[in-house]
What we know:
Shape: elongated
CATH topology of the largest domain: ABC transporter transmembrane region fold
Strand content: 5-15%
Mean pLDDT: 85
Radius of gyration: 36 Å
Strand order of the largest sheet: 6-9-10-3-11-12
Helix content: 55-70%
Largest sheet: 6 strands, mixed
Number of helices: 20
Low-confidence stretches: 580-584
Amino acid sequence: MIKTLAGSLREHKKGSLFTMLLSILEVVFEIVIPLCMANLIDFGIDKGDMEAVWKYGTALFLSAVLQLITGVLAAHVAAHAAVGFSANLRQDMYDNVQTFAFSNIDKFSTASIVTRLTTDVTNIQNAYQMLIRMAIRAPFMLLFAMIVSFRINRRISLIFLVIIPILAVLLLLIVSKVNPIFKRVFQTYDKLNNVVQENVRGIRVVKSFNQEDYEIKKFNGISQSIFEDFAKGERLLAFNSPLMQFFMYACMILISWIGAKAIVASGNNPALGLTTGDLTALITYSIQILMSLMMLSMVLAMITIAISSARRIAEILDETTDIANPEAPVTEVKDGSIRFTDVDFVFASKADKKVLDHVNLDIASGETVGIIGGTGSSKSSLVQLIPRLYDVTGGSLTLGGIDVRNYDLDTLRDSVAMVLQKNELFSGTIKENLRWGNEAATDEEMEHACRLACADEFIQTFPDKYDTYIEQGGSNVSGGQKQRLCIARALLKKTKVLILDDSTSAVDTRTDAAIQKAFAEYIPDTTKIIIAQRITSVQYADQIVVLDDGKIAAIGRHDDLLRTCSIYREVYNSQQKGDDTHDE
């Protein structure tokens, strides 16, 4: 895990090391300050020696200035390194997610990935900044202050050896109680993000069913859970300050009491024992020692919280795609011919039931193939194997006579255009969305693709036409318009295979027929696979595949299937009755 995260440091390694060096120098100058004060009091002020006052006063001033400079520089460099590290982590996670196959994406929810990219990375950023600054500063401060204190007076310094273990145990006890609470909080953030995302994405459904109050209660329940856990954790952490105050003042009282007796015994003579300056230094060092313990407890608390975040981030960074290029990939697809040979497919290796079971199917290049089947019959799973969004788990699948697993992934996916069942438009103009299919597409090519997809007719009604801005997710266009834009985007790829996964469900039958006619006339050499619920969308296909529970129930043309396939006939008759009812 540490090695995985450290790989994202890159250019910020030097900054991190420089921060550590500056933090140590800051501690050295901070340790020198009480010694300068002690000498100023003992050899300058008490003896009325102005030369000594100037000497130690100058040393005190320079130490304070240098401590300030190193402290400010350390804080600045630490912040820059931590922010840069977190930026690299986000970029590396995002880049790795882009390489995931669908099977990898299925392991992580969208809300979980968002939480890891935001909250978890912020936890790592805060912990790392404390690690390279406070986690270096506090131990050195504790060590140096203890050494100097014992050099001043061993007897009084024994107080630290009694108080420090007691305080350390109490602080560790608080941290151990707080740690599981904050772990639970950050896990709950996943649920919160999931609820928000689900609600915002489905806001139209929520409003149409008048379920706003239910969604508010669901959000409030999770939000309240986070509030209660945070409040509980903060209540426990609140004991840190009074504990520190108690032990700090206890130290000061004990040091003052024992020190005062020692000063009286020595007559405030440096040669005979403890002096006023030494007592002042010891009190300052006691504060530094206790504050360093406080810092260490804060660092420990932050690190323990960040460990769970680090594990979650490492899971994303360590995840390797299930689908990768072969050692010697084929970089050219000959044609759009497709052959499924005894293909099996399951989503999980230990699944009890196959999603696709012994599928055999031959599709000639340039053919139009319709796929019909009930919900859950694995129509989408079948076509997602062609561009290797998933890999077959048994049998073989070839494109252009070569197994799809032997192709270069970019080559394969550039040769297959897919309009998914749940396709997306992105925020930007219509032109920008269309150029997802072909970055170099000209205006004429975009208009031609839109005419084939019957999208040009509604684009021309917009005031800005092809420069019309599309909101995120295509929320400012209708479902049918969105589908037609997605089809046009796929056509711009000029591929060997075009797959429409129930992509004309939101358009009327007249527009659907016009799209099918345009495909037949203008892209006759492209293999077209059309998944549809309406038989009218596929009835003129060269062959129609009827899927039932992951198996091919029948293959044939429309008229043949009406005679030989009961499933196809039932679907056709039910849709005919529906059309008759609608006409009435």
